[in-house]
């Protein structure tokens, strides 16, 4: 009875407090951005990619700024775009993949992001299952890694993403080897895999393995293994009615969009906490 009363009171309070923004805080008082368990990481190196750690070489650059590009097999350029962090990550342009950029040639090439090189050379990221998506913008959203920056949409030069001499447009990709199928709930936590991949939480794990870091259970927004009003539901205060995404989105509201409809509502999202307050996962 106490739980139900508290829940109803909270719903009423959320409606009344809609003008106040309350952020979910991690230990230490900083805002916590969600991280997928299988998270893509990329960097530009002047050494070989660490293949022993699962890194793959996506393409090469003549320098770390104002550079031309080339393919791993067609260029001797010394700077390499290396990506890892996802089991089975590859560079195949078939199966589960997306095109990162299209090069004008295998070496000494300009690049395009708008398919303006119809006979060009695509460089791709791939995964054995799950999803791979690449996009372009002034920033990379939650779960997306920056591979490079480019000077334009076509006939462009490339640079790295280190904040020095970068170009304005970032090349952003996300990848997951996880099963993101709709209608499948691999970890049996009440949320289908497609919803968990969208949030993103780990569709193969129902509970955080590392407190406040491993985002596994959609209801456990603060990743402490418990579902509570103060720790989880309060994150919706001031955010009801707002857009949750769509991905890629740097907006933390996407993490709260539990029914993946791009809006935060009582019926669509908060109602999923009914009967779950006080629950604990292991």
Strands side by side in the biggest sheet: 1-4-2-3
Q: Low-confidence runs (pLDDT<50, min 5 residues)? A: 14-37
- Total helix count? 2
What structural class results from the helix and strand content?
A: mainly beta
| Secondary-structure element series | HEEEEEEEEEEEH
Radius of gyration: 21 Å
Overall helicity: under 10%
Q: What's the story with the biggest beta sheet?
A: 4 strands, antiparallel
**Number of separate structural domains:** 2
How many DSSP E strands? 11
Distance between the termini: 25 Å
- Looking at the structure, what is the overall shape? elongated
- Percent of residues in beta strands: 15-25%
> Overall pLDDT, averaged?
85
